[in-house]
Design goal:
heterodimer; B: alpha/beta; Glutaredoxin; two-stranded antiparallel ribbon; 8 strands
């Protein structure tokens, strides 16, 4: 009995929750347009906040103007253009894809491309470069001698001479 | 490990980034250039702050240079510039070739009137713009801000911040055809 009651409750929840959600998101079309426009425009007195999310008086009054213009039948482009003519490019949260703003849009991709090319060239260069012929340090000489194959006698003599010379310097 | 070319390339990139950052730090984020400069000023027809029956219209000033000053009783910097505005208004009355209009925005009527009672009435008309419709129409985002309008109704200059002592000689007089302290230039003006 308990199990069947629980099943009925779960089924009811499954059926009605979407309906409740639909009721809460049933927004007035004017307000939806105001929100859509308000989210693209920057609040001029706050830092990087859309006017729709700002509590400043300026943002609220800008939203009121947007609402009036939407009700008067103006298109979102016309309304955005109204603010752009007064506040310039600054008013758009996202830079427009025109004129010198194209540099802003293209720069990250160009940078990535140039960086990739430079990195590829550098890697190729490093792989081609011959291994350095740096002489081994005094501390590692004994281990090298233990694991390395026998070296040509001239090299071995030179190494021994160098070790002796450095040991003599240490004794002094 | 790095060849000298790569070392210099890396140093160049770091220097360029630091230079861009330094230039960016020098910018005032509140100083937004106005695209309205050198365009026709938006018209307004608003009720007067002092007398609701009276209208204040920019069109009534056609043929004269006009300083349109946006202010509010809530603005501390407006108190700072008020004394200089009173001086400027006296000069306007004597010269007769320019006028001043005040726009009291985002304010209450009582707030605006008590500001004028407390700090002095400069004697020119003030439009009352409580819902800041005129301010937004003019691209205003703070106070005080002032615009210089030429006799044909074109905006010639936007000044962000308080008007200061010597602003008339430095900024306004060159436009009026007087002796220029510096070459008159259309555009932005900040203290």
């Amino acid at each position: 009995m308990k199990r069947s009651l629980m099943s009925i409750l779960l089924l009811a929840a499954w059926l009605f929750v979407p309906l409740l959600h639909a009721a809460t998101t049933d927004e007035d079309p004017t307000e939806a347009k105001v929100r859509e426009i308000g989210k693209t425009l920057r609040c001029a007195v706050c830092q990087n906040q859309p006017i729709y999310e700002s509590n400043s008086d300026l943002a609220k009054d800008m939203l009121a103007i947007i609402r009036e213009k939407v009700q008067a039948g103006e298109s979102p482009e016309e309304i955005k253009s109204y603010f752009h003519q007064r506040y310039g490019d600054y008013i758009y949260l996202e830079p427009t894809q025109t004129g010198s703003n194209m540099i802003l849009w293209a720069a990250p991709f160009v940078g990535l491309l140039v960086g990739g090319l430079v990195l590829a060239a550098a890697l190729r260069r490093w792989r081609r470069a011959p291994p350095s012929k740096a002489s081994p340090s005094v501390e590692s000489v004994s281990s090298i001698q233990a694991v390395d194959p026998p070296q040509p006698s001239s090299d071995k003599e030179a190494l021994q001479a160098r070790i002796q010379k450095e040991m003599a310097q240490l004794d002094q | 490990m790095f060849t000298s070319f790569w070392k210099w390339a890396l140093l160049g990139v770091i220097f360029a980034i630091l230079l861009l950052m330094a230039l960016g730090l020098g910018n005032n984020p509140r100083d937004i250039p106005s695209p309205l400069v050198n365009r026709l000023a938006p018209v307004f027809d608003a009720e007067s702050l002092q007398d609701p029956k009276k209208r204040v219209r920019l069109a009534d000033y056609r043929g004269k240079w006009v300083v349109v000053n946006f202010w509010g009783s809530w603005c501390g910097s407006c108190v700072v510039e008020h004394r200089d505005l009173i001086q400027l208004a006296m000069r306007a009355r004597v010269r007769g070739d320019f006028a001043i209009i005040g726009i009291d925005f985002r304010d209450t009527r009582e707030g605006g009137l008590s500001f004028l009672r407390r700090y002095g009435n400069p004697g020119y008309l003030h439009a009352f713009d409580t819902r800041q419709k005129i301010a937004i129409d003019w691209g205003v985002y703070g106070a005080p801000e002032s615009f210089l309008i030429d006799p044909e109704g074109m905006i010639r200059l936007k000044h962000t911040g308080p008007i200061y002592k010597g602003w008339f000689e430095k900024v306004l007089l060159p436009h009026l055809g007087g002796k220029a302290a510096t070459t008159p230039a259309a555009g932005e003006s900040t203290p």
